[in-house]
From TrEMBL, chains A, B:
<dbReference type="Pfam" id="PF00356">
    <property type="entry name" value="LacI"/>
</dbReference>
<dbReference type="InterPro" id="IPR028082">
    <property type="entry name" value="Peripla_BP_I"/>
</dbReference>
<keyword id="KW-0238">DNA-binding</keyword>
<dbReference type="Pfam" id="PF13377">
    <property type="entry name" value="Peripla_BP_3"/>
</dbReference>
<protein>
    <submittedName>
        <fullName>DNA-binding LacI/PurR family transcriptional regulator</fullName>
    </submittedName>
</protein>
<dbReference type="InterPro" id="IPR046335">
    <property type="entry name" value="LacI/GalR-like_sensor"/>
</dbReference>
<dbReference type="GO" id="GO:0003700">
    <property type="term" value="F:DNA-binding transcription factor activity"/>
</dbReference>
<keyword id="KW-0805">Transcription regulation</keyword>
<dbReference type="InterPro" id="IPR010982">
    <property type="entry name" value="Lambda_DNA-bd_dom_sf"/>
</dbReference>
<keyword id="KW-0804">Transcription</keyword>
<dbReference type="InterPro" id="IPR000843">
    <property type="entry name" value="HTH_LacI"/>
</dbReference>
<feature type="domain" description="HTH lacI-type">
    <location>
        <begin position="10"/>
        <end position="63"/>
    </location>
</feature>
<dbReference type="GO" id="GO:0000976">
    <property type="term" value="F:transcription cis-regulatory region binding"/>
</dbReference>
Amino acid sequence: MAPPSKHRRATVHDVAAAAGISRGTVSRVLNGGYVSAEARAAIEAAIAEVGYVPNTAARNLVMRRSQAVGFLALEPHSLLLEDPNIGAIMLGANEVLSVADHQMVNLVVDSARDTERVARYLSGGFVDGAIIVSARTHDPITRVIAELKLPATFVGHPPDLHRSIPFVGIDNVGSARAITERLAATGRRHIGMIAAALDRDSGADRLTGFRAALGARFDPRLVAEVPLYDYASGVKGMRELLEREPGIDGVFAASDAVAAGAMEVLRDAGRGVPSDVGIVGFDDSSWASRTQPALSTVHQPAREIGRNAAELVLRQLRDEGPANVLLPTPIVWRASA
Amino acid sequence: MAPPSKHRRATVHDVAAAAGISRGTVSRVLNGGYVSAEARAAIEAAIAEVGYVPNTAARNLVMRRSQAVGFLALEPHSLLLEDPNIGAIMLGANEVLSVADHQMVNLVVDSARDTERVARYLSGGFVDGAIIVSARTHDPITRVIAELKLPATFVGHPPDLHRSIPFVGIDNVGSARAITERLAATGRRHIGMIAAALDRDSGADRLTGFRAALGARFDPRLVAEVPLYDYASGVKGMRELLEREPGIDGVFAASDAVAAGAMEVLRDAGRGVPSDVGIVGFDDSSWASRTQPALSTVHQPAREIGRNAAELVLRQLRDEGPANVLLPTPIVWRASA
DNA sequence: TTGTATGCGTTATCAG
DNA sequence: CTGATAACGCATACAA
């Protein structure tokens, strides 16, 4: 009996041969099954001898499940790098998937080529389910997942097109409204907003909430639209606001990073925070405690969101009916307003 | 001919049946092969009809390659969330893997349970290779990879134990020495260092370079040791330094994030930067341009590192001999020193 | 308890 | 050009 050729990994077949026992029995000791002590001993020795390591991929083919779920963030990459939220969501999801003995595989989609390849990967049987953050309704990946009926969960706003896929998120409208009202209650007269990512539901919703809070006092001239939830956008937006209304004394930034950028501009302009202008953010990310003064903001329970998202795909894997979940977002009042 | 049962996905077999042609021919139209126009048309119609989507996992089993490579960062998670470098490395790696039509799968290892599961995943045939950032020599995952002879690349310092695995990195010693010398050249008398992550090669090497630059003027009292490359550590380290030597007028922070934390402390303490104390960092991350004044630092070509790491595993996949690569790290002199 | 045979969904080989 | 048939590495129902 010739040894396995140089670059071939040992298989069940090999250990069976080495132990002088059938493959079926080998499989039985690997998983749980009735097998005599002697047979078990012989096989375990053989396993060590030939250096056997099971091929999970082959096992999955017959088992028809991969014990893996994909995690993908459909964001511009700059944000993927900067946003601490998505990292926390990821970790939260991994936590629950891990105890359920599922492998979380993180897929980055950063180009059209990526999109196509990831779609293939998702439909190729490598994952049992998927968690998608920041889905856009017309995203090809979202479409593929829906068509495949792959168990999935959206985090963020529910894309209207795919009612069948549950989501976990927060009430962006309500939260934005609440913190804006809180800001207004400090007696500010000219409250503006740096509205980011209006092409995304979260961004649009936050603006909606802001507008609702101000009611008749809402002044469209006082909202600066910026593309991303990041620091640079905050700088840009605050400059714009200051130029349009030098008397501005309150601002709601669409994210903490945006707020941090805005505060930088205010400091350069010699405005005191919160003495001259009160500012509030959104996310309660690490940015919030890093600013000077510390930022008042909306707490976004990122880790919990991740956990719930994972839980939701596991439910579907167990054929339990999925249910959407909306997590609470307490206001964290610090010193910036 | 009964339709495939409710929750079974259509297979090659099904489309063959639907088209009234053999499976072999179906496979040929899927991949490239000689097949008549009529047969092709019939099969394509059948594919659409039954909603066939290829099972890549099954294909990989017979092909003996997964067209996927794992990417794992063995970092404390706080860092994974904060360090923009690793994100950039990831994106760089994905770039080259993507054009090579390989799927990059990001694995997070965040607990002992994760470690074991990821090791199984890696050895289970799900990936053809792996990129490991911040490997520690005694990490179980590193060991598994070495034993499996899985084509891999380390990014960072080469773990001495596994000479067979190539690495891509930068010259931490040289870079640290260079920027410290540059700082000293501005006439500073009492130069300290906030040394982070000394348990990692990069951290230890930066301290070595710092020491080398100062030579006889090196004063061990002026190095504050902190655990991580993050903002909070910078705060802690700078406080320590200020207490030990109020006359300190220069500091080399082990990373930009650390430098940012340190600058915060200096500002609170009423010290001018760079008038009273000059400060330099490491990484040239987004932190560097965000500080006030902008940070002088060592540019770390994160994206290039990622690209090279990917290239290195692809080389091994093609059976080309691997070669380590050390990337240049230009000094970027801004306003903080 | 153990061995045998069959199937998971593809690709590949080799006659027709 | 096309159709059987044999792998790929593993699990499992069934028979022994």
